[in-house]
Design a protein that fits this description.
The complex is a heterodimer of chains A (679) and B (639).
Chain A: E1 8-15, E2 22-29, E3 33-38, E4 47-51, E5 55-60, E6 68-74, E7 79-84, H1 87-100, H2 120-128, H3 132-139, E8 146-149, E9 165-168, H4 173-181, E10 190-195, E11 200-205, H5 217-228, E12 236-240, H6 244-252, E13 266-270, H7 276-290, H8 297-307, H9 309-329, E14 333-337, H10 344-356, H11 363-376, H12 381-384, H13 398-412, H14 421-433, H15 444-450, H16 452-455, H17 459-465, H18 477-482, H19 499-502, H20 515-542, H21 593-610, H22 615-627, H23 629-632, H24 634-656, H25 658-662, E15 675-677
Parallel strand pairs in A: 11-14, 12-13, 12-14
Antiparallel strand pairs in A: 1-2, 1-7, 2-3, 3-4, 5-6, 6-7, 8-9, 10-11
Helix pairs in contact in A: 2-17, 4-5, 7-8, 9-10, 9-13, 10-11, 10-13, 13-14, 20-22, 21-22
Chain B: H1 5-8, H2 27-37, H3 52-56, E1 80-91, E2 95-104, E3 107-112, E4 119-124, E5 128-134, E6 142-149, E7 154-160, H4 170-178, H5 206-212, E8 220-223, E9 239-242, H6 247-256, E10 264-268, E11 275-279, H7 292-303, E12 311-315, H8 319-324, E13 341-345, H9 351-365, H10 374-381, H11 383-402, E14 407-411, H12 418-430, H13 437-450, H14 455-459, H15 474-488, H16 497-509, H17 520-526, H18 528-531, H19 535-540, E15 557-559, H20 572-575, H21 588-619
Helix pairs in contact in B: 9-10, 11-12, 11-15, 12-13, 12-15
Classes of the chains: A alpha+beta (679), B alpha+beta (639).
Chain lengths: 679, 639
């Protein structure tokens, strides 16, 4: 708190990034958040909450006639542009933020202060939701060829690996230890995914310290053991995910790649994914292109191409497809590595597993996958996401890229994934929010030292409690049965710009109608109808009649506390749970929050009044009231707020005339389309 | 429906596997898969788009007994003209295939049993734009022919040189029947004798449509002045003009407008009475000629709308082009001459630019896509840029009418290409009726067909002159814009993507009379409705295929699409549908239909139970009254 000099500034204007509209309101600075509250008497007044950890950069621009501009860029791709009337206020906020967004020690992170009003037991249960031991069992290990090794029990062999590692039965301790000495950072080959059907394994490691000629018998022995553990194939694929040039360059530093002559039975393959620096620059370029206010079609397409971002995404997907084919078609085991084996290796292994195993395409499964391939195997979240003030060269959107690959797949296979886009966005949000303990630190050992399990909460518990928001209504488990292995197409037009990620907070860029939202509403309606059905059946039962048509036995009469969401009052909220930004993509919260509240109130009222007997009526009431009038206007009402401004601007443009003739860009200013009622 | 049964088997002899692997899947074998189940008499049409899966999952039609026959199932009055074995089709995706080629007076049918499932290529001759012999006879005696098609693909065949040099090559037969007009033959639409349960010629009735719009009213009247097309031969007979302009003045206005295409009403706002009117350019010329009558006429259009004292004239052309037209006697309205009128140029390019642009798109997407330069290649076609300008123009028109409550006049040069695009798109945004299947048909019949978009010229039905500078994909471009809108408002349109693709397929197929001729006058003269079948007869006889399950009736909504480039994409489902690697999207729509069905069932059950409860509780005294009697969630009211 000592860093906050001015906790509240009034009459701050918020400029729209792509339009000419501005809203004025009050800016609050708390220990954890920067909050902008629109000063407007209307009910739908806007509120923006920005967590300090989300802020990537703050820029104070030179004073103008209207005030002092403050430009804030966030890691979740929100860009806000405030204009503060007095320069002194602006400077205060600016310097406070500068300090606040650069925490020096982990204890300063929000996760250590965040308290969602759970007791210790609930928190503990939250952490136990994901059990990697059980996950390996689900895959079918340990088995006759693979066993759990305790060699890293005390992080002695490799401190960036988890304690529990799975290796071939024939790999003895000396072999493992010997191999680890020959691998960069001691990250020796271990199992990460087991394809039970063909008994083929996906293993991961870091690059060998081969230099130009060095070799290591133990390492060769370990690869041999991996090969022997799979009877389907006489060889192991070794995928080096780097471009060949980079791998060669590493040889000069005493590292490098496996020499096929030294290892019997390997097939070596480069797949050419660029390194973290290239990816960082690429995303930066992409954001610059799409951040231009009046962008021409050709600048957009050329910029998109020259940023290379979609090409990099394709490279990762291509690598995952290669891995999948090797395992599922050829039945061969594959060893994947890059340089350190925690960036590109994590991307390829996890994406490959996602393609091979339908389980990872469920909500819980994706959590497990991230927990396994990213968190436990030591993807350096702290460095890559810049959690503490660190080396900017270590920051890179590797995990964002993985999430985008998943998204691109969901676009190609809308029925194959249990989760929707909003789930991916929420994970991305919280990887950077530092609100939960899961992603803090760089590896498991560090997390244990920080005692995260005791001192912070788990994101997965929170996401699971909210999982109805993340359900993909098109998900079909039957599809997963029919197509256990996904074969995505990699034609270039299948890789699209992820508008909802990079423009999530730019209202004017949102689609006018979302199929997802429509479908969710439909699902919700069905669910309510089902509730009503059950209630009615129950009621009939009370009346002593058995329903004529036998339907499935009434399951849970009411959904388990699904719609319970508290609204957070703006004043005391910073430390209050659950901070839940509305899904901007879906317009409002996926299932309208107000409606949920009203439903809840109604429920309570009626339960109070009638002792919870009249379930049927109450359900009827809520579904009926939510049906026609209120919902019909959603489209219209959400549009009205932006309507006036956009028209004003639009008319101004055309009436002024000169603007519209000079730059064809005025056309872009028509971007605010709205649908509404005419009568 | 049984009528259409005869075309059921069109094309498909053997259904291919449901999920052919990428390698073995050829665009055409998908087609045979599809047409086996659905029954488009089709322009060979599979679009493996996100819609086709709906069709895919439908129960398979029983395999036809004649499945090993090598000739197609013929349509009524379709006759085989020639048939040759041992023809090689050089497929750009799967390589050379040997098989039998059949030419009828309607289609080209190629079947190869080399591979399993049998490969079938079935296309109406109408889509063929040109046939050329490639090179001379090769050393092995093969002659090779290339077919350039109007629907974004090229086909290549080869066959042995005829030993009997007197006998005509099958490709000479093909050329004859592919270009019947040039060869003094009849277009197949005049022979096609299919009868459908619906009569599509009745879909559009000008009087009824104007009545729907509330015309005539105190400001607008229907005039008979063009009853026999003497005022303007490219306009329909029924025209709506301002009440206070008598017919003889209308005639003088016609003299001042290119081709006599006077400003007439296309659409009127139900509340504000703001109107969309269309016309051709004024004959201003280099000397800046003026016409008192024309000025008075536009004033009358403005006066007809009490809400606004302004009139917007949208000239679709770039201002440079409009100025250049003065040299040819045309031009644009000067703001001096027209009081209170404001002229806006929409910068949309002419038919030649559009033709060139789409040609480049074809180059980029067919047969193969260069992966590393996909986006820059796409950019170099400028196609999306043109789409954007057209949508942006239509949006400005719609916005002026809806929000500005101001009447607008839209024209380009002749008022039958860009003008038709703009007015019809604006109307699609403004009026929910046009977003229904029937309404869309009315929109096409009215704004495109009756107002004389020159389909015959732009498409070149049955005409071998493929270099004709009058050809242009103006209508395709319009349909692309519609598709872009459906992408942004997935629930606002009653029709689905398959509907749009089907219309485009039959734009070329010459199976139906709908898109023949250049104007209403010609159609009347040729007795098209009497002598041919309407495309709408076919479509309206199986609406289920073309219905969008997400549709919610947004009758009263005005749609303002975002014309940001971030929302525009290439219509892959149309332009790239021949590429077998264009993986069809999974059947989201199918899933949605299931959900709808489930809900309907639940609601039915709830209502049943409610009735039951009401009955019971009425009879049982222990329960309070007031049980739910009102009906639950009406099916179609969510957003």
């Amino acid at each position: 708190m000592e860093h906050i000099r001015t906790p509240k500034v009034e009459q701050v204007r918020l400029l729209d990034r792509f339009g000419n509209k501005a809203t004025s309101g009050t800016l609050y600075l708390t220990a954890t958040h920067l909050i902008f509250v629109e000063s407007s008497s209307t009910a739908g007044s806007q509120e923006i909450w920005i967590l300090h950890h989300h802020i990537a950069s703050v820029e104070k621009q030179s004073l103008t006639t209207t005030g002092c501009p403050l430009l804030i860029q966030c890691r979740n791709f929100r860009v806000v542009h405030f204009v503060v009337q007095r320069e002194r206020d602006c400077h205060d906020i600016y310097s406070s933020l500068l300090r606040l967004l650069r925490p020096v020690v982990y204890e300063e992170l929000y996760a250590f202060a965040y308290n969602p009003k759970q007791n210790d037991q609930q928190r503990e249960e939250g952490w136990q939701l994901i059990d990697l031991g059980a996950e390996y069992e689900r895959m079918g290990v340990p088995c006759d060829q693979w066993q759990l090794t305790d060699v890293n029990r005390d992080y002695k062999v490799c401190e960036t690996y988890p304690r529990n590692l799975y290796v071939p039965i024939t790999a003895s301790k000396p072999i493992i230890v010997g191999s680890s000495k020959f691998r960069s950072k001691g990250r020796f080959p271990v199992l990460t995914f087991f394809y039970q059907e063909k008994k083929a394994a996906v293993c991961r490691c870091s690059q060998p310290l081969s230099g130009f000629s060095a070799r290591c018998l133990e390492d060769e022995g370990l690869l041999q053991a991996i090969s022997r553990a799979n009877h389907n194939s006489r060889f192991v694929y070794v995928m080096d995910t780097r471009p060949k040039l980079n791998a060669m360059a590493n040889r000069a530093a005493g590292k490098g790649y496996e020499n096929e002559d030294n290892y019997s039975n390997i097939r070596f393959q480069f797949v050419g994914i660029e390194n973290i620096h290239v990816m960082r620059a690429s995303l930066q370029k992409l954001l610059e292109v799409v951040g231009v206010r009046t962008l021409s079609m050709s600048d957009y397409l050329m910029g998109l191409e020259s940023s290379g971002w979609l090409r990099h995404i394709k490279a990762v997907v291509d690598a995952a497809i290669f891995l999948t084919k090797a395992v599922t078609v050829e039945g061969a085991s594959v060893l994947v590595h890059c340089s350190d084996g925690w960036d590109r290796t994590a991307q390829v292994c996890s994406l490959g597993a996602l393609l091979m195993d339908p389980y990872y395409r469920t909500i819980k499964g994706l959590m497990v996958l991230i927990e396994k391939d990213w968190i436990s195997f030591g993807h350096k979240f702290a460095d890559r996401c810049d959690q503490l003030d660190g080396d900017p060269k270590e920051v890179s959107p590797v995990f964002t890229q993985f999430l985008e690959c998943v998204w691109q797949l969901t676009e190609q296979f809308p029925q194959a994934f249990e989760f929707n886009e909003w789930f991916l966005l929420q994970i991305h949000e919280h990887v950077h929010s530092c609100q939960y303990g899961n992603f803090l630190g760089n590896n498991q050992r560090q997390r244990e030292e920080l005692q995260l399990r005791e001192r912070t909460h788990s994101l997965w518990a929170y996401l699971l409690s909210e999982q109805h928001n993340y359900m993909n209504p098109f998900y079909s488990p039957a599809h997963a049965e029919r197509h256990p292995v996904l074969e995505p197409s990699t034609l270039p037009y299948h890789f699209k710009f992820w508008r909802n990620m990079y423009h999530q907070f730019d209202r004017s860029m949102h689609p006018r109608q979302s199929i997802l939202k429509t479908t969710l509403t439909l699902r919700e309606n069905s669910r309510k109808a089902e509730d009503t059905l059950h209630a009615l059946e129950k009621r009939l039962h009370q009346l002593g009649v058995t329903p004529v048509v036998t339907s499935e036995p009434p399951a849970a009469p009411l959904p388990p506390a699904r719609d319970r969401r508290r609204s957070s009052p703006p004043n005391n909220a910073p430390l209050l749970p659950p901070l839940r930004p509305d899904s901007l993509i879906l317009g409002e919260a996926p299932l309208s929050r107000k409606e949920a509240q009203r439903r809840e109130e109604e429920e309570q009222e009626q339960q109070n009044d009638q002792g919870g007997e009249e379930l049927g009526e109450e359900a009827t009431e809520s579904s009926a009231s939510s049906s026609s009038d209120t919902e019909r206007t959603v489209e219209g009402s959400s549009a009205t707020d932006s309507r006036k401004q956009s028209y004003g601007e639009l008319e101004g443009k055309t009436y002024n005339g000169e603007a519209c003739k000079e730059e064809p860009a005025s056309v872009v200013n028509l971007e605010f389309g709205v649908a509404r009622m005419t009568c | 429906m049984e009528k259409s049964g005869s075309i059921d088997s069109l094309g498909s002899k053997r259904s291919s596997s449901r999920q052919p692997s990428v390698d073995s899947l050829s665009s055409t074998s998908t087609r045979s898969d599809r047409s086996g189940q659905a029954k488009p008499p089709s322009a060979d049409s599979v679009s493996p788009t996100e819609l086709s899966p709906e069709l895919r999952v439908r129960p398979k039609a029983p395999i036809k007994a004649e499945s090993d026959k090598e000739e197609p199932q013929l349509l009524p009055n379709e006759t085989v003209q020639d048939m040759t074995k041992d023809v090689t089709y050089i497929c750009p995706f799967i390589g050379a295939l040997r098989g039998t080629l059949t030419i009828t007076n309607y289609r080209l049918f190629f079947k190869s049993t080399d591979r399993e499932p049998a490969f079938v290529l079935d296309l109406p001759l109408g889509v063929v734009s040109r046939v050329e012999k490639i090179g001379g006879a090769s050393s092995r005696g093969d002659v090779s022919y290339g077919l350039v098609c109007k629907d974004m693909r090229n086909l290549r065949f080869a066959h042995k040189q005829m030993e009997d040099s007197l006998r005509k090559s099958i490709f000479e037969v093909l050329m004859k029947f592919a270009f019947p007009v040039s060869n003094g033959l009849q277009i197949f639409a005049f022979e096609y004798g299919q009868v459908f349960p619906e009569n599509g010629w009745k879909v559009y009735d000008a009087q009824a449509e104007y009545k729907r719009l509330g015309i005539p009213n105190e400001s607008w009247r229907i005039t008979k002045v063009n009853d026999h097309y003497e005022l303007c031969d490219t306009y329909p007979s029924t025209l709506v003009v301002p009440v206070n302009i008598p017919d003889d003045e209308v005639k003088r206005v016609a003299a001042f407008r290119a081709k006599g295409r006077i400003p007439v009403l296309s659409w009127i706002h139900p509340e504000s009475q703001a109107t969309v009117t269309r016309c051709s350019q004024p004959m201003v010329g280099v000397n800046g000629k003026r016409s008192k009558e024309d000025e008075k006429y536009l004033q009358a259009i403005m006066d007809a709308n009490a809400q606004s004292h302004k009139l917007f004239i949208f000239d679709a052309r770039p201002s440079v082009n409009a100025a250049a037209n003065k040299m040819k006697g045309g031009g644009y309205e000067s703001e001096d001459a027209y009081q209170n009128a404001e002229l806006v140029f929409l910068d949309i390019h002419n038919i030649h630019v559009m033709r060139e642009s789409l040609r480049k798109v074809k180059e980029v997407v067919y047969p193969n896509i260069e992966e590393s330069h996909w986006l820059s290649n796409l950019e170099s076609t400028h196609w999306l840029e043109h789409i954007k300008l057209i949508l942006a123009g239509a949006l400005r028109i719609a916005d002026k009418v809806e929000s500005g409550k101001t009447s607008v006049v839209v024209h380009c040069s002749d008022g039958w290409d860009r003008t038709a695009q703009l007015t019809s798109l604006a109307m699609l945004m403004l009026d929910g009726y046009y977003r229904t299947i029937q309404g869309f048909q009315v929109l096409l019949e009215k704004e495109w067909l009756s107002f004389g978009h020159r389909f015959q010229m732009r498409i070149g039905h049955g005409d071998k002159n493929h270099t004709d500078a009058d050809r242009s994909p103006v209508f395709v471009q319009f349909m692309d814009c519609v598709w872009q809108m459906t992408r942004q408002f997935p629930a606002a349109f009653e029709f689905n993507e398959y509907f749009l693709v089907t219309i485009l397929d039959h734009l070329y197929s010459c199976l139906f009379g709908t898109f023949l001729c250049n104007s209403e006058q010609q159609r009347v003269k040729e007795e098209i409705p009497k002598r041919s079948v309407s495309l709408w007869s076919y479509i309206n006889s199986q609406l289920e295929e073309f219905t969008n399950p997400l549709y919610v009736n947004y009758y009263n909504h005005v749609l303002f699409p975002v014309v940001s480039l971030r929302h525009l994409e290439l219509w892959v489902g149309y332009y790239i549908r021949w590429n077998p690697r264009m993986r069809p999207q999974e059947p989201v729509h199918q899933r949605y239909k299931e959900l709808l069905a489930k809900r309907a069932e639940l609601q039915k059950r709830v209502e049943e139970l409610q009735r039951e409860v009401t009955n019971r509780s009425a009879s049982s005294s222990s329960e309070r009254a007031g049980s739910p009697t009102r009906s639950i969630t009406p099916v179609q009211t969510f957003v």
